[in-house]
Amino acid sequence: MNQGMEFAYLNRGQNLEIGRTKLMSAERVAAIGAVGRRRRQRGGRLLRRVDRKAAALRFGFFSLLLGYAAITAALYSSRWSDGDGAIFPTVTIFAAPRPFSFAGGRPDLVGARQELAARSWVSLGDEVAVVLFGRDPSISFLASIIGPRVAVESAIDFTFMGTPFFHCMVARALNASSAISLVIDPETILLPNFLTALHCAHKLNGDWFLVSMAPSISNFPFHINDTRKQWLKEDGTIIAVEKLQEYVDQKLQWSSCTKRILMAWNKGEASLLAGILPPFLYGKDFHNEWLLHQVLASNFRSVIDVTYIASAFYPEKLPHYFKNKISIDSANSGWEENGNHYLATLYGSLFSELHGIVSTHFKLIKCSCKHAFLDSMQNVAFYAERTKVHPLGLKLVPYQEIARASFVRRTLNLWVQKKWAHCIQHIHILESQCSLMHLYSNYNRKPKPLFSPFTLESLLQTTKDKDETVVVAVAGDNYKDMLMSWVCRLRHLAIPNFIVCALDAESYEFALLLGLPVFRDPLAPNNISFDDCHFGTVCFQRVTKVKSRLVLQILKLGCNVLLSDVDVYWFSNPLPLLQSFGQAKLIAQSDEYNETGPINLPHRLNSGFYFARADRSTITAIEKVVKHASTSGLSEQPSFYDILCGEDGINRVDDNHCHEPDSNLTVHFLDRNLFPNGAYKGLWEKRNVRSACKKQGCLILHNNWINGRKRKLERQVHSGLWDYDPTMRIGPRAVDPRSLFCQFVHAGGDRRRFLSPPGFQSASSNLSNSSSRKDNGFGTPADLQSGSGAPPPALMRGRRADDANMKDRRRRGGGGKFPRSPSAPSLHLTLFLLCCLLLSAVAFSAFRLFGVFFRVRPVLLPTWRNPTLNAFSGDYPNLRRSPSFHSSPAGFVVEAAVSFPDEVLLFLKPKSIAAGTKLRCLYFLSPSGESQLSLPPVSSSVSGDFIRCPLPPKTDAFNMSLSQTSLPQLPPLLPLRWDIVAYAAVLDPVDNSTVVFAKGHNLRPARLSNPSSFECIFAWDFFHPKYSLSSEAISAAQEIFRCRTPLSVFHRLGHHPTSKSPFVSVRFKAHGSFPLPSIARHDPLFPRLLNHRRKDHRMCVCTMLRNQARFLREWIIYHTHIGVERWFIYDNNSDDDIEQVVKWLSSNWKVKISLLEWPWVKTQEAGFAHCAMRARASCDWVGFIDVDEFIFFPSATIKLQDVLSNYSRMPWIGELRTACHSFGPSGRKTAPPEGVTAGYTCRIAPPERHKSIIRPEALNPSLINIVHHFHLKDGMKYVNMDARTMVINHYKYQAWEVFKEKFFRRVATYVVDWREEENVGSKDRAPGLGTKAVRPSDWATRFCEVNDTGLRDRVLKKILLQ
């Protein structure tokens, strides 16, 4: 080897180094080799490390791409799959087959058509389910032979003849859990192409309504095999679906277009129509056309006509079933068609807008084996492809864009244009022969008169049970709501053997249109009062005599009768018990209210619930009762007792039986524990009436012993014993599906409404409003146009377990889908979770790489210090938006509008309007939102807090606004009702409670109610509250509710008295109840009472008056002379310049008078309670007397201050009750110019009633009073003043021109107006005058028994001395 040369070689993977010139030693060579090996090992490890990282990065990158692609494909498939994919929308088909018979073991022609049609529906696919409505056994048989996917439901409403109600069918379809609902004629056959049409519609972005007519086909020689999957010819060979469709296309008779329509819609957000669906009878014409027209007129959904894909048709002959031609039977009845025609002309716009609205938005056509949507107006076709260009996600057919395309593309697509033009032309030809417009031809716009072919005899044969027994109810228009609740209850108990006797035309039409077995009594009295036909009235006496005469007529026809008033609530079926008593017995309810002692005392036989058998003894006795009642001036109830038990009970046998000797009839009084009346054990006053009655074992509960239709309805509704919602026209659904009674289902469901007619307010308000509805109980026709319907209640939802979540699943894209492959959902779910996992890993890795960290910040949740208060949020439909939002450009603010019987009050924000500002009252009388009437206001309050506007003429529902011009400056307000509103509230500083004055709960007079049934609601805005507070009621009586004040509200009023206080309302604590509408805010805080602080005044007087300014001077001046120091005057809508009189008295006589404008009608008790709270801080004693009442001390040595000082030393005395002497006209024919006290000197000898002077601190916290006296605290006593010490001269019966004003309005809550036929013999009335303000000829000399000149002499002497 040459020295100085360098070389290297590789031997078994090791490098050796050689020196240049000198010889290296072995040790040197070994050391160098070791170093080289170590270097090579480090380099290899580094290379291997770099290779693994690169491979991992490449693998992760490709895995992410693959996962992203798989997830995208899966989600895209899940979202956009159509007829060729794996997932389809679920479809439920609803139909109401006609009952059919069997011939030779096979169904007749009607049954054969319906069987073939149902088989064709099921053969469409596994995603299709069928629901049949019916009660006939033949329909159950039809469902059983088709398969498990066909169900029978009988939970909707039927007439007593078995005809289903169309609106109930639609309601059931609207609440189905499937993605698509379809209502179809039971004899219409569907081909698979129709399912494709549903899939095309389901692809649309918006909500839709699909409709198709069903042309007829003369001969259809095909049927479906037992597997329900293949169509067969007559010889049994299989025919392909494509060939079957071709046969139908050729054989359809387009010129003989039938009125059979099928309608389908998706389960979307939009309502079908604005308003409600009237109770059409299914299959009796008009209902399909009416619904289609209203859907088009409402324009909530896109309407698609799929008639021309020829996939729905009606077969006339079925050779496979019948070889001979059989005529088609028509089941329509004239009287039922007339009812549907009447409803169609009365409601909606079907007969007013026939032309221009019946054109649908799109037609679904098939051209070149493709389905497309044809715009009916512009002849433009679209594919159902998901795009963002069209609102519904439609894409133009290519030939539509030819004009904008290039020359080459235009040439290539020329044949496409010709093909589509030919298809559209063919559709137009078919449309000329059969279109939806043909449905509306030859319609008579004039409603036909309603009639029923059923007489009493035929109704009895139809409705009586196997024991020849019927249940009879008698009702007029005033009790139709209660009648419907009674009917709902009987249907819930499965008691079909009842009939209804209508007393007037309104109730007859109402019951007939709702399918009740009703007949009109030709001998019923006319002019039945709507609101005042209850116990004690002349109207009540006339109506009750109809019942006994009707029972006698039915007994003579051979039927047993259970007569039940409609105010009787049935817990169970009492017929088995009543029928067990045997012959010659009349079983009646007892009206005795004492819990012990006899129950058959005089006049304790209740003729509103009794059972009578059709035997000779009973008929003879009832004949005597009818004869006696016809000549009696009372109701039939006293006649029942006087005849059957004898006058004064001489025919009583023991404590619960009577025996009528002439007829040998025994009267058995029912056990009151099983059949309680309205006063027994105070059951109606229980907190949970239903639970109390069931615990006692009640079979029924009579809602009697209460006066007034409104109060009776309110009591039954609030107790929960109510099975019919007049607001929604729907019966609540209980556990038993037979209790579903869906009269007037709100198919619209749009809450955004401009008008709110009386028929669609809250339950309480609607009950009170029934007097203003003369529309057969179905709302006004304008309701259907104004969108005033409300959605069906939650109780109608949940027909299946997943109904409540259907809308959310539909929104997410998964609801209503039918999986054909069970593995598809799990695969999609797995891929979705994998995607989330990968994205989460990447996200957290990125956050960590960039140094982003998260910290959780603790949040302090507020808690309430008072455990009795509950914070909640919500939306109350009955409460209007806070008025503070309605401000005008002129600066004034309208806070609320309240409608009274003779005027409308618009309440303004205090000091928001300058004095002398000229305003106009604007009325909005239609749903258009335009002001249709402008009237000047009647007057304005002195303080400027409210404006009085006249009522608009001839309208029940209207909105109002206020403006300085004839144009609106403020949004319109819907006036609240004066008798259903919380109208005042006072903060009591003694116990920091809030006293609320509210109308609408109609509590009983002079009695405390259970406060645990009520709670107060505090909110600044009830319509959209940020938060609201509820507080338990401490006391409840009459119209006065006391609740604990929430601490936040109390502190706000205490520390910021000038800030706006919240509204206060009262709510009945029951399921589904809402607070009363409210305009009540807290009055300013009163100064706290100090224990040793002397009050400013010894004696104050409080009064409420209306148009008494001419008598006010004399009254105040006189009482000022005797020692009254302070006056609280509540002005109840006076228009006689009373403020000028008060101003004159204050300036000339230095009298301290507080004049408060109190516009609330019939609230004297509440006004006096309000006054007692106001006067408590400054008055030791407060007298409550009227302007025609004068305190008089017969002895000249006795002074008012002496009397009060004497009793002030007795702290247990809280009230001084003073007798009233009633003075008559005293020969005066005109008002005496010398004054009341000097002009009237003749009076009645005995005193009438009394008036009170009270110590405010001694009053019961409930503030309950009956005008004449208050209830006191426990331990406090009252004193009846000696007439020789102090009396009150009550100048009640003055000259006729003054006295007649008492007829027109009474201010007390529980005192009826004298023109009403109720409590005619009350001491509050003038004896012998009756109900008409007609001057008796001897009026001037009446009521004169004692000549009393004591007060006259005292007054004249005082004047002479001055």
Describe this entry's structure for a reader.
Helices cover 28% and strands 21% of the residues. It is built from 31 helices and 59 strands. The strands form twelve sheets. Strands 4, 7, 8, 9, 10, 11, 15, 16, 17, 18, 19, 20 and 21 form a 13-stranded mixed beta sheet that branches. Strands 49, 50, 51, 52, 53, 54, 56, 57 and 58 form a nine-stranded mixed beta sheet that branches. An eight-stranded mixed beta sheet has the order 24-23-22-25-28-27-30-29. The longest helix is centred in the first third of the chain and has 55 residues. The radius of gyration is 42 Å and the shape is globular. The N and C termini lie far apart (164 Å).
Walk me through the topology.
Blueprint: E1 8-11, E2 14-17, H1 26-80, E3 87-89, E4 91-95, E5 102-103, E6 106-107, H2 109-122, E7 128-133, H3 137-146, E8 150-153, H4 166-174, E9 180-183, E10 189-190, H5 192-202, E11 208-219, E12 223-224, E13 231-232, E14 238-239, H6 241-251, E15 253-266, H7 287-298, E16 302-305, E17 312-317, H8 334-346, E18 362-367, E19 370-375, E20 381-383, E21 395-396, H9 407-412, H10 414-433, H11 456-463, E22 469-475, H12 480-492, E23 498-502, H13 505-513, E24 518-520, H14 538-556, E25 560-564, E26 568-570, H15 575-578, E27 585-590, E28 605-612, H16 616-630, H17 636-644, E29 657-660, E30 665-669, H18 689-696, E31 700-702, H19 709-719, H20 763-769, H21 781-786, H22 806-811, E32 817-819, H23 823-849, E33 869-872, E34 894-899, E35 903-908, E36 920-924, E37 933-935, E38 939-940, E39 946-950, E40 959-963, E41 976-977, E42 981-988, E43 993-999, E44 1008-1009, E45 1014-1019, E46 1028-1037, E47 1040-1044, H24 1047-1055, E48 1063-1068, E49 1097-1105, H25 1109-1122, E50 1126-1131, H26 1138-1148, E51 1152-1157, H27 1164-1175, E52 1179-1184, E53 1189-1192, ...
Parallel strand pairs: 4-7, 4-9, 7-8, 11-16, 11-17, 16-18, 22-23, 22-25, 23-24, 27-30, 34-41, 49-50, 49-52, 50-51, 54-57, 54-58
Antiparallel strand pairs: 1-2, 3-32, 5-6, 9-15, 10-17, 11-15, 12-13, 13-14, 18-19, 19-20, 20-21, 25-28, 26-31, 27-28, 29-30, 33-46, 34-35, 35-39, 36-37, 36-40, 38-39, 42-43, 43-47, 44-46, 45-46, 45-48, 46-47, 52-56, 53-58, 54-56, 55-59
